[in-house]
């Protein structure tokens, strides 16, 4: 029996074939190493490795080569399988690279779009989700005991070990819906942020190349999804998105990734402390012993009274401002104006405050408009999905915050509106705990029509649409496709309006 090795994956096996044959593991070409099993077993590990390397034909892909696919194409195959991986931490700043490739590249932002009409949102992050499954071969070769060969040691299978992390990320919506390989990168990125104040801190991740191939085109999106799960990381995208630096090299069909984060602004930790104090102060009078639905209602009602819409950001079309973050909603915008936000600021603040009460939620980014026009031709908007007792609901705090004092100048009319507590409540909860289907085409209700003596009847509410995603021709289309693919639809009705 002669020893054969795969030119593609380096798998070794015994065979009595007289010519090359198909690798049972990866489908590559098995070729003879010119030795029998007895001679093979007398070789050292180095000699074995040299023989296999002699037939190995490396692939030519670069994990960080810019993709060439068009934005219109995307697919979402999410195979469920265990993976081999090693996840470790290092404070080294330069790797000893060996093997076929090495390179250093910053992960750069691919977007920014925002826009108006009483709503405004930071949007855009490019890329797509391109994942394919690995189908495990079930081939087994049976050989006589004296013909068995020593295999070159493969990377240790640590897939059955606990996560190589002390972090519990199971309540993070994007993390919980990712495939295993994406979770490894997500956890490493999260750990990087947790150690952002340690100079020279580097997070290392090692995985087999076929595993890395599944997520290499999604690397930027995984980072953005991690930020979406953690609105308390507002400082990483307060002006423009602060991306990590990535150093990657491959050796023996194993990809080694080193991640580092550039320093932030000088007052970053001061801002973080202010934000945490503001959130804690907000939650002081929230009854956390109440049901999830009651807690959500308390936070919603307090938030729309607590935050003011930042109309200057809207009118001046300012994209890079703290008003787009939870910090703007709970502390101040970039100009120092207290508790000022636009739609995404409301949404991230709502998400973070709910998380402090143990309620899972996320921010939805899409298109919204009044009057039944095509929302895909209109502006971006942000709102929330919220999980209550196992059911998902959609809520738009920004649109529920009418700020009637700023829009209605007639003091008498304003007082009459506020006196009608039932209609006023329905007006400020029109986009509260709806299903996804309802939000797509939500008609105005006669329940919010006001009849005031001496005035024509009027309804503050208009027909509206909220649709996830965006126009396929728009710059940020693929980001929304990736993020929205991980978000559940809202079907909850028990606590709906």
What's the helix and strand layout?
Elements: E1 2-6, E2 12-15, E3 21-22, E4 29-36, H1 37-42, H2 45-55, E5 85-90, E6 101-106, H3 173-176, H4 180-194, E7 202-208, H5 209-215, H6 219-229, E8 245-251, E9 254-260, H7 268-283, H8 292-306, E10 308-309, H9 311-316, H10 326-330, E11 340-341, H11 343-356, E12 361-370, E13 380-388, E14 391-395, H12 397-400, H13 404-407, H14 411-419, H15 421-427, H16 436-440, E15 449-450, E16 458-459, E17 464-468, H17 477-485
Parallel strand pairs: 10-11
Antiparallel strand pairs: 1-2, 1-4, 3-4, 5-7, 6-8, 7-9, 8-9, 12-13, 12-17, 13-14, 15-16
Helix pairs in contact: 4-6, 8-11
Q: Trace the largest sheet across and list its strands.
A: 5-7-9-8-6
Helix/strand-derived category reads: alpha+beta
Query: Unreliable segments (pLDDT under 50, ≥5 consecutive)?
Result: 59-164
Q: What is the oligomeric state here?
A: single chain
Tell me the number of helical segments per DSSP (H or I, 4 or more residues long): 17
Largest sheet: 5 strands, antiparallel
Number of strands: 17
Query: How far apart are the first and last residues' alpha carbons, in Å?
Result: 74 Å
**Given the C-alpha coordinates, what overall shape results?**
elongated
Q: Helix fraction? A: 25-40%
What integer is the average pLDDT? Answer: 77
In what range is the share of β-strand residues? 15-25%
Overall radius of gyration: 28 Å
Question: Quick summary of this structure?
Answer:
This protein is α+β, with helices and mostly antiparallel strands. The protein has helices spanning 37-42, 45-55, 173-176, 180-194, 209-215, 219-229, 268-283, 292-306, 311-316, 326-330, 343-356, 397-400, 404-407, 411-419, 421-427, 436-440, 477-485, and strands spanning 2-6, 12-15, 21-22, 29-36, 85-90, 101-106, 202-208, 245-251, 254-260, 308-309, 340-341, 361-370, 380-388, 391-395, 449-450, 458-459, 464-468.
